[in-house]
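ASSEMBLY PREDICTION REQUEST
Request ID: AP-0331
Submitted by: J.K., bench scientist
Number of chains: two
Total residues: 821
Priority: normal
Notes: Please return the full assembly, not individual chains.
Input sequences:
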Amino acid sequence: MKNRLLNIVIAVAAITLFISSCKPKNLGSAVSGDAASKAYVAPGHYDEFYNFVSGGFSGQMSVYGLPSGRLLRVIPVFSVDPEKGWGYSEETKPMLNTSHGFVPWDDLHHVELSQTNGEVDGRWVFGNANNTPRVARIDLTTFRTAEIIELPNSAGNHSSPFITENTEYVVAGTRFSVPPDNDNGDIPINTYKENFKGHISFIAVDKETGHMSISFQLRCPGVNFDLSHAGKGPSHGWFFFSCYNTEQANTLLEVNASQKDKDFIMAVNWKKAEEYVKAGKGKKIPAQYSHSMWDEKTNSGKSEMIKEVLVLDTKELTDICYMIPCPKSPHGCDVDPTGEYIVGSGKLAALIPVFSFTKLQDAIAKKDFDGVYDGINVVKYESALYGEVQKPGLGPLHTEFDANGNAYTSFFVSSEVVKWNIKDLKVLDRVPTYYSVGHLMVPGGDSRKPFGKYLVAYNKITKDRYLPTGPELSQSAQLFDISGDKMQLILDYPTIGEPHYAQAAPADLITKNQLKIFKMADNGHPYFTNGEKEAKVVREGNKVHVYMTTIRSHFAPDNIEGIKMGDDVYFHVTNLEQDWDVPHGFAIKGAVNAELLIMPGETMTLRWTPDKTGIFPFYCTDFCSALHQEMQGYIRVSPANSNVPLTSSLGGKISGSADVE
Amino acid sequence: MKQLFILFCFISLIMACGGKTADTKSGTNPYASTEPAATTNPTYDPNRGIGKWTPENLSLTPTLDAAMADSGLKVREVKCASCHKITSERLVGPGWKGVTQRRKPEWIMNFITNPDPMISKDPVVQAQLELCLVRMPNQNLSDVEARQILEFMRKNDGVQ
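STATUS: Completed
Returned structure:
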């Protein structure tokens, strides 16, 4: 035993030495002695920040605490989640409806917290679906997806869901240009230049309710729109979108979209666009896109199909958009807290251009143009340029800001985060990441009021950072303390899916609005069971509605007979608990969908079609009390022609049942 | 092996002491219970329990308010009947018959509006928990609802 242990110790030491030797040289200085205490949050204590992180190809959004890196919750958004019944319960199915029907998966890339006066307000967080283009709004009182809207004329909704400083609009720019939905799309792919268009959607957000509606779309040249950020302060009223493939290639983009020395950042005067909308300059174009909304009264999702969209053509209305040349396929497009500086990150470039909003306005006023790109005026590079950060690193991707006039840019190729000063464009510090950082995030780092203190780098590759788990490894987040002059790595931890963008907000902005239970008195679900006395089974033809309740620790009813083959059984389960953190679960043998998890005061519905006769048990899946294991029941399924009467009971007492033919 | 384990524990102990600055950094927990866990609390009043209700602010009349008792029955059917019968028979929790004779009204009011701290401290409730094994859930009763339930309990015990 001792020998084996010794061997293990030696082996670990050897491996450690071996791995260390492969790491970047400055690893030693990357983690210093007090790192653990800086990331330590004592048991029973709360984290300082909520951190909302895209779940990438998981389709969901994760919520971490900072600085501990504790995973607090995974919010199901665009992908089904059998654990929570998301996309399986009858109430949640409409939320994933699209113009293509029910879509069970997507790729959530970016998250954005709502803002008021350019500051994070903690009301909602938005997420984008990259594959089947949609934007979701998550309500931060419940941490649930409250609304999803689909985007017509789009494909690969990547430059989304970035917002204006009072959350007037959430934008969505198409990554793929495609023929508009209402045009004939059955055309040769190599007619890209004539027929493919890039649409940018401005989704209006209701100030009180958060409800989203597409206010207008801008029809733009056929290029790839990549990322975006709104102007703020003096530049409020403008939006900036990076675009690449201005070569308009439709094949082998890796080579063909990297030909030009400069692509563009497109500056959009959305206040001007609003004027054109008011003046009736938009065209209503037939379209088909879904809008799914959660109704808090009935506790159910509803989906409607919308049939047209208002489009402004930037070829005709030439003073909405302006192109700013930006080196080498710009990716990140970030605006500093003052609203004056726009940072473009050419992902193949070896410098970072910083544009000045004031200079841009001057250039536009003086018509200091350098030609026209597909109907859009191109501002001269030098005329909009504030300056360039020289030799910052290789492959700049994204930039966030602190409150002290500093910018932090991620470098994918050289795998590092670089801190630089916005005013003098001097590099101040650089730290390695493990490995290949994509997005990065500072709490409030894209708002007018960054909270600073921490920076999280989201890495695409982890390789040897964690215990290996076969060929498929997790991505990682790395937490840096940025309160001093030098950035200090204090923690790293794995993430769900592939994290792209993230946001963070001080905890008390969000904790103060938390909903703990759904009040039973407010339950407007059509199949609500208001107490055990109302528990019953009702037959409507071959549909059987079970009005069921849960409380620690039994179901009412828990014995049901008279179900027949060919029946569709709807279990409408109301959780009668009125205390925080007492959900009950519901699962029945052989169900081909999932479980239900029902929060206190809520009603959820599981549809079940028996596939054979016999006795089917059901039980509570969420450990609810010392007698949780007793929380169970039976259903008897008889042949289609059987005469077994429909009954339901609890403790031998028959509960209400009725036949409605 | 044992020595190694002791060494490990020792190292863990030292590391655990290093988090002195953590409290200033971590946010306060507004939901954390401030009640001590001890079950024998000399300040606990077994006649009144823990909560806002006292004989003074409850001001019961000797006669029944029948309308209030009827409202209490309605609340009972939604929030209590799953676990309590009106007879003396136990379902999940004890039957209600005679409860207003066994317990002071302010104790009942405090218990049904503030069960958790009382379950942890009241010696009779502790004994009851050993029988029932389910902690009575907090059903978030409003003051009005709680008072209506108490009136129904009085009616159930024969108050006219």
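REVIEWER COMMENTS: Chain B touches chain A at residues 1, 4, 15, 18-23, 25-30, 32, 77-79, 81-83, 91-92, 133-135, 137-141 (CB under 8 Å).
SIGN-OFF: pending second reviewer
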